[in-house]
Write a structure and sequence with these properties.
The complex is a heterodimer. By secondary structure, chain A is mainly α. Chain A contains 17 helices and six strands. In chain A, α2 packs antiparallel against α14. Chain A starts with a helix and ends in a 10-residue tail after the last helix. In chain B, the strands form two sheets. A two-stranded antiparallel sheet of chain B has the order 1-2. A two-stranded antiparallel ribbon of chain B has the order 3-4. The chains are: A mainly alpha, B mainly alpha. The interface between A and B is large, with 83 and 79 residues.
Amino acid sequence: MNDVMFARGQMAMSLAFHIVFAAIGVAMPLFMVLAEVQWRRTGQADWLALAKRWAKGTAALFAVGAVSGTALSFELGLLFPGFMEHAGAVIGMPFSLEGFAFFTEAIFLGLYLYGWERLRPWAHVAAGVVVAASGVASALFVTLANAWMNAPRGFRVVDGAFVDVDPVAAMASPAAAHEVVHSVAAAYMATAFAVAGVHALALLRAPAPGGDGPGALAAGALRAFHRKALGLALAVGVPAALLQPIVGHWSGQRVAALQPMKLAAMEWLVETRAWAPLRLGPLKVPGGLSVMAYNRPDAVVHGLAEIPRADWPHPLVHRAFDVMVGIGFALAGLSLWAAWLWWRSRSRAPKADASGAAPVGWADGRRFLWATVLAAPLGFVALEAGWVVTELGRQPWVVYGVLRTADAATPMRGLVVPFVTFTLLYAGLGLAVTAVVWRHVASTLRPAPPAGPRAEHGDHDDHGDHEHHDHDHHDHEHQDEHGPRPSHAEDRGEGRGGEDP
Amino acid sequence: MSWGAPEAVAAVMLAALVLYALSGGADFGGGVWDLLAFGPRAAAQRRLVERAIAPIWEANHVWLILLVVLLFTAFPRVFAAASIALHVPLTALLIGIVLRGGAFAFRQYGPPRPEYRRRWGRVFALASAVTPVVLGVVVGAVTSGDVRLAGGVPVGGFFASWVGVFPLSVGILTLSLFAFLAAVYLAHDASRLARDGAGAGAAAAGDFAPEVARALAEDFRRRALVAGAALGPAALAAALTAGPGTLHFRAALLGSPWSWPLQILTGGVALGAFAALWRRRFALARGLAAAQAALILAGWGLAQQPYLLPPDFTIRGAAAPARTLELLLAALAAGSVLLFPSLAWLYSVFSRPAPRPRPRAG
């Protein structure tokens, strides 16, 4: 490996690490604020427990996203100064806007996490909405910059210099619309199925319904809690996963028009031909790729043989594309199943009782729950695979057709050192994050109703408040007085109810 | 020098640097005091630091991101040149930033086991102490006039421009400044906790009971006095070790029309901050300490003019095309309408004491 490869390796590794937290930062705030809205609306303590749990998860992962994102903004220059020297003036604009969006997200997340007691109810919900919206805005702006790298506009090259710079035209790259929709939908899809998988597993592990006595009552409350979480996650994930194949098709057509060689690499089509086939594992659909790219089975698709062998993207693009598409269809299929189950339950099942604890949930079937558990990591795998397709498929260009990656890299030698350092650093962080998330998930899976007072006694640091030493103490008192389920009126009282589990 | 869009963006960047030092810098300083916590109240000192920075450090940190983004949008050639020549210290800076933030989050959200919290707390504290030094080294190298490229590679190699006594002195100055700011802020926080706690009963102050909070205010008052006193020698060391590349900088710092008014004002504010700390006027001390830090950085920025990265890049000469700068300034104006009220809300919400628990229902 030469230094350029190490530079690319470090950039790829940093992005692959960051994108997980970025996607969670986009999607997770929506879950937390939807759960809080449900709590304010219904007064059911389960929703408050969920909002706090999800807020806490968001907070821990947001911090890692914030620092790994900072690293990226420096690494652009540290590894590819030639790119930033030319591209900075053209495409710095969306990065600046992203900076503001990120600022907004950080400010309002601080207000949300630590403001349960200090803000009025409406202000607290509004802060959460701002977090969710600015997360999407961040994704939008940063994807605009990536779209420009794939379909650069808004400048001319004269003697190697970028002149007649028009940042607005650069932001309106023809690759922008589909990339943004595809990325944001992917963030929601990946996060939603990961959350759904956790609560599906919890439902599978929960004691079976039926019987009576206090044990059965606790089991019922536990199942009601996880059903709420699963339902909310699927309410976001199912539409996103059903939308994604359509957006994917649109993206394929745009890539065919804008970056024909990336499309060729995605299906590893060497010879230019009509009736280009689509290979899905052992299956070969004649004309499938032609349809994907141009909506006609007899359309001519350009093959890699049109460009010099040395400029072919890495074959991994093809593998990653298959993984992404395969998972996309699998999650869409699971989503159709979920939609059918839900629709069927609407037409025949009895209405839930006032506490929201229906005797049987619409998604309680063990086969469906197991499928959801297995699907939990798939969205993130697809997200990473899609990222590989778009980034590796752009090579050997950093600015497609304009500036080669190798020409943009830093003259610094010995890049193996920072590459190895950052790899170890992120591996360590990855392990630490996994441990924190695992603990979070394990506390969710524990067979006691997380909304009940017992769980809160044993797990008091679940409060989204840093002054927990202080609050432990009050919470114990409150619980002793109010009993396990505070009434609606009390729970919703003056925003202070936020600390009552 | 005439003012135009490049100078306006440079001024915004200087303002962002000042705000980063006052907010994010103080958060790093908090980590320094976590590292140096000692005595019977060491645990309480660490809790006070954690309490102070937990809700705001991510927002404060964004000033640095904004600074980098503005640099590469408005002055892309400077960003590229500095990124090449200062590759090593900037990489070290990133490692420090990542470790500091990650460790703080893990300590906060990980298992509450004491040994786990202690381990990540140690990482957080060490990274908080090392990162400001590295940041100061980078600022020192930028000031030194030694960051130059010839044929796309750094003159003298990848180490010569930043390995030296002068950049290190600026690094130590930066560390002292951040630690000073943090100690003053923490003394103020503790004194407020003591006052609110005494008024509202121990519960409102949590585990910072009034007598503990009062003692903490004294702890951080002493630390602030020590760190503030260290600023003088650190600045002197930087001044004495500055090389020939800083000739323009030193001449501007001492010989401009604004030089002596600024120097006198900075000195006066510094003495005022000291006196306020001495007399336990913590709110006043906080304002004066922040003003002192802002004036030091403003003096640095003014003396750098017209250079952004001396001697090869001036603000005017390295600027991006006018269209980019105009759009950027428009975005900054629109963004600040959003940003400053939000920040004001964040700070005001968390500078108030926590609301008292609800009166017990029968």
